[in-house]
Design brief:
InterPro entries: TPR-like_helical_dom_sf. The structure is a single chain. With about 450 residues, the chain is an alpha+beta fold. Strand 2 (about 370-375) and strand 3 (about 380-385) form a beta hairpin. It has a 5-stranded mixed beta sheet, with helices on both faces. It contains 20 helices and 5 strands. Helices cover about 70% and strands about 5% of the residues. The protein has a domain at about 305-454: Alpha-Beta Plaits, CATH 3.30.70. The chain is globular. The chain has helices spanning about 1-15, 20-35, 40-55, 60-75, 80-95, 100-115, 120-135, 140-155, 160-180, 180-195, 200-215, 220-235, 240-255, 265-275, 295-300, 305-325, 340-345, 345-365, 390-405, 430-450, and strands at about 330-335, 370-375, 380-385, 415-425, 450-454.
Length: about 450
């Protein structure tokens, strides 16, 4: 089977040169051929390359899906080395979905296999990933230990593997950015850039994103906006929707929209792709493959406070009951657009005003047989029991008219707009996925400055 062997060699070349679209094309064909010929070792190699390509392309739905089949073949036909490589990508998948503890556990298993086989490439890359994960959990001391260990093994064993050191450094840079270690970040950034192949790659975008985070934490707004703009340009060019969305969220969270010229156009682009269902994991706060099912509840709880999550727990059985009994239920995501208030009065008054807005919203809708919860200070979810959409639309119009006429403490019109995304339980999707779909539609309505999308 010279063809399969040659294709595997070619995939290795493509991966070293970050040619991910070509990897997807070649690996998909080679995988099918290897499975037909029961060449499972080569099939597992194809799965490994596909997982890496989908991850770096930001195609996280495809990444999640391929991991399901990867796991099945690995468990049935893979040896220890195959399991080591599988745990590497399982850890990365959980990292993408922000399932931090499962990501750490998978990374630790990959590291254990790496030590067993003296595969320090795997050891170092996963120590970098663990530094990232522990940082996300706020455990900076453990992140520091992982970073130091990774750098020790890299200096000792990876002199001839610059790509592995570069990938490890990305995770360590995330730790340094969030720990606001500017000097260490600058030194490691310099070394990492020297190891990178090509220009404006996915990893250049990650590095720029992390530097933007660091500068934002140092309150250097213009410099941070410059780096986040650079990251946004890279992710847009690569059509990496996931990381483009992450970058937009950092820009919004740090109130830099006025400093990023492409913010509006990128927001519209990602809004359109969100409407088409292309935004896979970060925005939805969920992963969608069967492999991730045990972690859905845990992950969903990570994105809201314990009190708000309890409210989601109350809403989920209601949604399930309506669905199982073939009763129509509307799932509506809502969002207060308070950018004018933020610009004029600042963050503190914006949040105070949003508490008032939420009370106003509840008073309007409490006459209807529905439930309301929040997922952030200015957005949330409504479950509405209506016979048809016309009644929903009437309620949304009433809400819009009410909020447009609200006055601030100085009796000026508030300028608040509200946007909705509307979906139903008719497709029998789980509650979490209905929330995801509604949020994506709401995000699209916001980009188009429309009252709602459905």
């Amino acid at each position: 089977m010279t063809v399969i062997t040659n294709q595997i060699s070619h995939l290795a070349f493509l991966y070293r040169n970050y040619m991910y679209d070509d990897i997807v094309e070649y690996a998909t064909v080679t995988l099918q051929l290897a499975l037909e010929k029961e060449r499972y070792k080569e099939a597992l190699t194809c799965y490994e390359y596909l997982a890496g390509a989908y991850h770096d392309l930001g195609r996280n739905q495809a990444f999640s899906d391929i991991m399901v089949d990867y796991e099945k073949i690995c468990l049935a036909h893979g040896g220890r080395k195959s399991k080591m490589n599988f745990y590497v990508w399982l850890s990365r998948m959980h990292l993408v979905a922000q399932n931090h503890q499962p990501a750490i556990e998978a990374g630790q298993k990959a590291i254990a296999y790496g030590h067993y086989f003296k595969n320090y490439r795997v050891v170092c890359i996963n120590l970098g990933n663990l530094a990232w994960q522990y940082t996300a959990l706020g455990n900076f001391e453990q992140a520091r230990v992982c970073a130091r260990l990774g750098q020790y093994y890299s200096d000792k064993h990876l002199a001839d593997e610059p790509d592995a050191t570069m990938r490890m450094n990305i995770g360590i840079l995330f730790y340094l950015a969030n720990a606001v270690k500017y000097v260490s970040f600058a030194e490691l950034k310099r070394d990492t850039l020297a190891l990178m192949v090509g220009e404006d790659t996915f990893y250049h975008g990650q590095l720029a994103l992390f530097e933007g985070i660091l500068l934002a934490r140092m309150e250097q707004t213009k410099q941070a906006a410059k780096m986040l703009s650079y990251a946004l340009n890279i992710f847009e060019t690569q059509n990496n929707i996931e990381y483009g969305y992450i970058t937009l969220r950092y820009i919004e969270a740090n109130h830099m929209t006025a400093h990023v010229s492409k913010y509006a156009t990128c927001l519209a682009l990602i809004g359109e792709q969100a409407r088409q269902g292309q935004l896979a994991s970060y925005s939805t706060k969920l992963a969608t493959s069967d492999l991730m099912q045990p972690y859905h509840k845990q992950y969903f709880s990570n994105i809201v406070s314990s009190i708000l999550f309890a409210t989601h727990q109350q809403m989920s059985p209601i949604y399930l009951d309506y669905t199982e009994n073939n009763r129509s239920l509307f799932c509506i995501a809502w969002h207060f657009n308070t950018s004018d208030i933020l610009t004029t009065y600042g963050v503190r008054y914006e949040r105070q005003h949003c508490h008032r807005l939420l009370n106003e919203l509840i008073q309007i809708v409490e006459a209807h047989p529905i439930r309301v919860t929040t997922t952030d200070f200015n957005q949330g979810i409504i479950l509405a029991d209506f016979e048809d959409f016309s009644r929903v639309e009437t309620m949304l119009i009433v809400i819009e008219a009410h909020f447009s006429s609200l006055a601030l403490y100085n009796e000026q019109t508030s300028g608040v707009s509200i946007h909705f995304g509307v979906t139903t339980n008719e497709t029998n999707v789980p509650y979490e996925k209905a929330v995801v779909r509604a949020e994506d539609l709401m995000y699209y309505a916001k980009t188009k400055k429309q009252l709602y999308m459905k």
